[in-house]
């Protein structure tokens, strides 16, 4: 039994270091991708049912993300090689502003119904049935005109805002995971939902924020009309209390 102790100690030493953050992010992202992959998702829904699947999905996400955050807080925050300081007033103001924009994107995404839900069925039901509807019910609205994945983008901006003022290796590995997961998660979600949402929705929207608007495929004027500016204002005011 003693022969296993060096191996166990080595594993603990790895987790109690910035490398543990990478391991945690890999576990979180990997489990997310495996469970949400169309074929795996459908099998799990058919076996477990929709609500149990969602519960299992949430539990696994919680069980991988929370330990990653705890590892960062204990062993990574402000530790490791310093690549930049981010201590100037300008950088700190830019970082705060970026995080506020992320919070606005996040709350706008939550307050805007998903295209699948607006079509009258849950995304899980639509995927399980392989259903694609060309319907006005999946017309992009609000933040969806800016980016298809406002929630993911909001989280990415949170990470970028933190990176501006936290330049040590442990901070970079943890907060850098947010924008990386935004891109990977958004691309994977596009791959999955293209089987259930009409092509017209993708023709009018973009994964990269503002790309569809810049290319003339959508309108900022329409997006701004549909935004919930009351929630946006509450988000900014709330952020002022934590300055």
Automatic annotation (TrEMBL):
It is found in: Membrane. InterPro entries: NnrU_dom. Pfam families: NnrU. Residues 22-240 form the NnrU domain. One of its GO terms (cellular component) is membrane. The chain crosses the membrane at residues 12-34, 54-73. It is a multi-pass membrane protein. Its main location: membrane. Residues 114-137 are annotated as: Disordered. It comes from the Eukaryota. Keywords: Membrane, Transmembrane, Transmembrane helix. This is NnrU domain-containing protein.
């Amino acid at each position: 039994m003693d022969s296993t102790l060096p191996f166990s100690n080595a594993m603990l030493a790895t987790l109690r270091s910035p490398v543990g953050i990478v391991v945690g992010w890999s576990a979180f992202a990997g489990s997310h991708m495996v469970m949400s992959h169309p074929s795996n998702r459908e099998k799990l829904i058919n076996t477990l049912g929709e609500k149990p699947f969602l519960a299992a999905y949430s539990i696994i996400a919680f069980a991988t993300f929370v330990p990653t955050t705890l590892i960062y807080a204990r062993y990574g925050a402000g530790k490791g090689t310093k690549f930049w300081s981010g201590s100037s007033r300008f950088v700190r103001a830019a970082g705060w502003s970026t995080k506020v924009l992320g919070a606005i994107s996040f709350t706008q995404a939550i307050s805007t119904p998903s295209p699948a839900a607006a079509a009258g069925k849950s995304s899980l039901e639509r995927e399980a049935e392989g259903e694609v509807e060309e319907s006005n019910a999946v017309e992009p609205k609000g933040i969806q005109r800016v980016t298809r994945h406002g929630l993911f983008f909001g989280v990415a901006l949170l990470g970028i805002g933190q990176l501006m003022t936290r330049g040590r290796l442990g901070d970079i590995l943890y907060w850098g995971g947010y924008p990386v997961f935004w891109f990977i998660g958004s691309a994977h979600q596009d791959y999955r939902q293209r089987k259930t949402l009409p092509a017209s929705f993708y023709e009018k929207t973009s994964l990269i924020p503002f790309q569809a608007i810049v290319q003339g495929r959508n309108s900022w004027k329409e997006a701004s009309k549909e935004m919930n500016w009351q929630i946006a204002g509450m988000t900014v005011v709330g952020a002022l209390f934590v300055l």
